[in-house]
Write a structure and sequence with these properties.
The structure holds 2 protein chains of 2 kinds. Chain A contains 13 helices and 9 strands. By secondary structure, chain A is of the alpha/beta class. A 4-stranded mixed sheet of chain A has the order 6-9-8-7. Chain A has a 3-stranded parallel sheet with strand order 2-1-3, sandwiched between helices. Chain A has a two-stranded antiparallel sheet with strand order 4-5. The two termini of chain A are 23 Å apart. By secondary structure, chain B is mostly beta strands. In chain B, 6% of the residues lie in helices and 36% in strands. Chain B contains 1 helix and 8 strands, in the order H-E-E-E-E-E-E-E-E. Chain B has a 5-stranded antiparallel sheet with strand order 6-5-4-7-8. In chain B, strands 2-1-3 form a 3-stranded antiparallel sheet. In chain B, a hairpin with a 6-residue loop joins strand 1 and strand 2. Classes of the chains: A alpha/beta, B mainly beta. Chains A and B meet through helix 1, helix 4, helix 5 and strand 4 of A and strand 4, strand 5 and strand 6 of B. Strand 4 of chain A pairs antiparallel with strand 4 of chain B.
Chain lengths: 382, 136
């Protein structure tokens, strides 16, 4: 790292120490955080980076009311916080954020309210207390909850989501590795088995097995490798809430908006510069939220944009060209496959290659609208 | 049928669950900023970070904000499809819940319909805040 470039300006422990039966794990994180903020003379809204282990950075940011552009959940045991400091120093120097809060809280003796790493923990976690008692059963019944409000806000109907699945199947038909390649119609989508009204099976992603890997180095060294380099132009990230019921706006993802804006700013590009786009599509509504929250469409206009074939083969913005989570594959954490397809498009070797594409964006979601990451790539040397 | 998945109150949320047991929907609000009411419970204001907050009994009124109807019931929820809903409370915060005393169909469950809280006792310690169509 750059010597002497970063400083610690706030530091505090929890108010009490020893045996604390009246505070849960997330409560201990928050107590230490509020004390450190007071020590630094800051408020939660002054923080734009979070790092923690044990709890998830999403839960921490949401609980404290922080909207971060940097979230580090590195968890490698007791030294995690040393790694957080190191990563934070790099992030601040790189301009990913300005002020990072690193927290720890553990109810090692009293064992109060453990919670889970992704908010999916036991009955004492936020999800466990305030969502799970009402019967959600995994992503098909949680990721989908905001969509009726989205549709009502813009005067749309469930069938307006169907072209997302239909057009992605057209892309998948060109991809020999896609799980589903046979054409489908809007009627097929609407008459498929109902999973969680208004979502039919063809509006939900596959469940498959697979994996992926990436290797990065400096742009300077990249010239010496056998493959055509794919350069990173810009990046963004954010987290909103581990509880889908607590999304600020059911018609828009705050994590998407913050992450996308940062990535565009870093890359120094406009929307018309983008030749190819991947939007993590665990369900058919995600490309609608993604197109709008990234700024490719005005609020409420993404369904028509897709229906009018702007994102289809030959359209002006090729989207989810591998077939997406709906038709290509989805092993559970699909973001890796969105990145892989962007790399193939930038190398010029994708099965459904967007001719002459120079800039690609891979936009991902984590949890149920809980987190987001955006990567802008280019095949043009800096 | 396995027993229903129930919340395990923590020290920071105990007042909320005690309220449900006593027939009161308890929210919190900040006494230092105008951030308004917030949920879920925590001992400080998520708008400004102040620890000066108070609990109060909310009206129990709200509107149906969004939902899905789970067609493949979780084993502890019975065998019939049921709505997993979010209600927007009159005081501002949103809350996940189930809608009771109402058919679990798209026709009967209209967005923005008026709802009122109805506490469903599960155990001696836990009553869940469910919502039903408002009477009048």
């Amino acid at each position: 790292m750059k010597r002497n470039s970063i400083a610690i300006v706030g530091a505090a422990e929890t108010t009490k120490m020893g045996k604390i039966p009246d505070q849960s794990v997330i409560g201990l994180h928050a107590d230490a955080a509020l004390n450190a903020l007071a020590d630094a003379g800051l408020k939660p809204s002054d923080i734009d980076g979070v790092a923690t282990a044990g709890a998830s950075p999403t839960e921490l940011a949401y609980y404290l009311g922080i909207t971060p552009t940097y979230a580090d959940g590195t968890s490698v045991g007791g030294c995690s916080f040393m790694l957080h400091v190191r990563h934070a120093a790099a992030a601040i120097n790189e301009g990913l954020c300005n002020t990072v809060l690193i927290t720890h809280g553990e109810s090692g003796r009293s064992r109060v309210g453990g919670g889970g790493r992704f908010g999916g923990g036991g009955g004492a976690s936020l999800n466990g207390q305030f969502e799970m008692p009402y019967g959600p059963m995994g992503p098909p019944t949680m990721f989908t909850i905001p969509v009726l409000r989205y549709l009502k806000t813009y005067g749309l109907k469930p069938e307006d989501m169907a072209p997302v699945a239909v057009i992605q199947r057209e892309w998948a038909a060109k991809n020999p590795r896609a799980s589903f390649r046979d054409p489908i119609t809007v009627d097929d989508v609407m008459s498929a088995d109902m999973i969680a009204w208004p979502f039919t099976k063809l509006m939900c992603c596959l469940v498959t097995d697979g994996g992926g890997a990436l290797i990065l180095t400096s742009a300077e060294r990249a010239r010496d490798f056998p493959q055509k380099p794919v350069y990173i132009l810009g990046t963004g990230e954010s987290v909103e809430t581990p509880m889908v019921s607590q999304m600020e706006d059911f018609a828009s993802s705050k994590a998407f908006r913050v992450s996308g804006k940062k990535a565009f700013e870093e890359a120094g590009i406009t929307h018309s510069d983008v030749d190819h786009l991947m939007i993590y599509d665990a369900f058919a509504h995600l490309p609608l939220y993604g197109l709008e929250d990234l700024g490719f469409c005005k609020p409420g206009e993404a369904a028509a944009f897709i229906r009018e074939r702007n994102t289809a083969i030959g359209g002006k913005l090729p989207l989810n060209t591998n077939g997406g989570g709906l038709s290509y594959m989805h092993s559970g954490m699909y973001g890796m496959y969105a990145l892989q397809e962007s790399v193939r498009q930038m190398r010029g070797i994708a099965p459904a290659q967007a001719p002459g594409a120079k800039i690609s964006i891979a936009h991902g979601v984590g949890g149920m609208f809980a987190a987001s990451g955006t990567i802008v790539m280019s095949n043009e040397a800096p | 049928m396995p027993p229903r998945m129930l919340p395990e109150p923590t020290p920071e949320t105990r007042h909320f669950w005690d309220g449900c047991k006593a027939g009161e929907l308890r929210l919190q609000r900040c006494t230092e900023c105008d951030g308004g009411s917030y949920f879920p419970p925590r001992p400080f204001c998520p708008a400004c970070g102040s620890r000066n907050v108070e609990e109060y009994a909310a009206s129990g009124k709200g509107v149906l904000w969004s939902y899905v109807i789970n067609m493949r019931p979780r084993p502890d929820m019975g065998t019939e499809p049921y709505a997993i809903a979010v209600v927007k409370l009159a005081e501002g915060p949103k809350m996940m819940t189930n809608i009771v005393n109402c058919p679990q169909t798209p026709e009967a469950l209209e967005l923005d319909m008026a709802l009122e809280v109805s506490f469903a006792k599960q155990t001696d310690d836990i009553s869940l805040p469910l919502f039903q169509p408002a009477k009048g």
